[in-house]
Amino acid sequence: MRRLGSKSIPTGLLSKNSSSSRLPLVVPIHRSTIKMSKSKEESIIEEEEKEKEKKKKRDDASKVPSPPEKPLPGDCCGSGCVRCVWDIYYDELEAYNSAIETHNKTNHGEIKER
Length: 114
Hints:
Residues 1-78 are annotated as: Disordered. This is Oxidoreductase-like domain-containing protein. The protein is mostly helical. It has two helices and two strands; from the N terminus they run ββαα. The chain has helices at 40-62, 85-108, and strands at 2-4, 7-9. Strand 1 (2-4) and strand 2 form a beta hairpin. The longest helix is centred in the C-terminal third of the chain and has 24 residues, at 85-108.
């Protein structure tokens, strides 16, 4: 041990070329990161936001799609167009029926007749 000022320092901590006037080599100590816990208010707000998201998902899943609008009698010109308003309507009606079937399966586990 060597005395450096008023402190005794083990000689192993001093550098090889050190004199009594130099400071000892100091090895930094690694400290782990400390995570701060959330306050009660933050936890409550986070839980409320999660509940809102869950409720929104349930509401979106429970929405029944609206049926397509049926063309009026005067909407078709009767000239045999390639893409008649009735063709569009029946395509949309088919997609609507598929959506209703899927909706009923996912929300009720079975198909319900309308």
